Amino acid sequence: MLAGGSDGRVIVPLWLDPLSLTAPTDARTLRTTDEAVRGIAAIMAKSFGLPVPHRVVVHVYGGRRAFEQGLMRDARVSPVQAATLSDFAIGVGTRGQMLLNDQPADRTERERLRLIAHELVHVSQIELAGGEGRGEQWLAEGMAEWVAFSTLERLGVDTLERRRQAAMAGLRTRATLLQRGLDLEAHGTPQGFTAWHLREGSVPVYQLAFLITDYLIERRGFDRTRGYFASFRRSGDRGKNFDAAFGSSRVDFEADVLVRLKTASAL
Length: 267
Description:
Largest sheet: 4 strands, mixed
Structural class: alpha+beta
C-alpha cells in the first residue's frame, strides 16, 4: 500500500505499452501500484483485447476525506457528487486516470488488485466509447467486475466461478431485489445506477450487475460486449447500439435474464 503525502495523495504517472509488457501469472509479482497497473494492463490487452491509454495517472489517497477532495480536484466532479461518491466508492476510473482510496483497514491484497483491475476496465471503456458516461451503466459495472475476476483468476488469487457463486448466494438473501423487475432502462444511466445502489445497497446491486453481465457474455460472448462500447464512437443511442451489438433488444434480454435469475435464486 502507498501512504499519502501532506495532502493525503500520492500520484503515480505511468506510461504504458501493454502489448510490449509480459502478462503476469503470479500476483506476488505485483507488489507496488506501478507493478499492479502495468501487469493488469497487460492481461487486459492480451487476454481481452481491451485498449489502455499509453498514459495513465493513478491518484492514491490516504483516506475518505482526501479521496473526496481528490474527486473534486483531480476528477473535477461537483462537491455534491464527490461527497456522495466518497461515502460508498473506494475507486473511480475516468479518462486516462484512476482515483483510489487506499485507507480501508480490512483491504486484502486480492481486493487491492480487484479494485485496480475494476477501475482500469472503466478507463478502457472510456477509450472504447470515446468518452465518459456512454453505454449502459449496469453493463459498465458488470463488465468491470467480470474482467476484474477473470484477471484475478489468471493471477491465481480467485476465480470467476467463485464470484458467480458468491453473487448468487447474495441474491438469494435479497429476494426482493428481483420482485420489481430489473428496469435496465432506468439503471443504464450513471445517475440511475447510483440511485439504484444507494437505495438497495452497493453489494447486492454490484452482485446483480455482475450476474446480468455474466449471463450476457455467456450468451453473446465477450467480443460483442467490447464491441458494444466501441459502437458509441458512431452513435450515442443506447438502445440501438444494444440491439446491434447483441442481436436482441434490451427489453427482450431483460425478460430473459430475469427468468434465469429468478429460477437460479430459487434453487
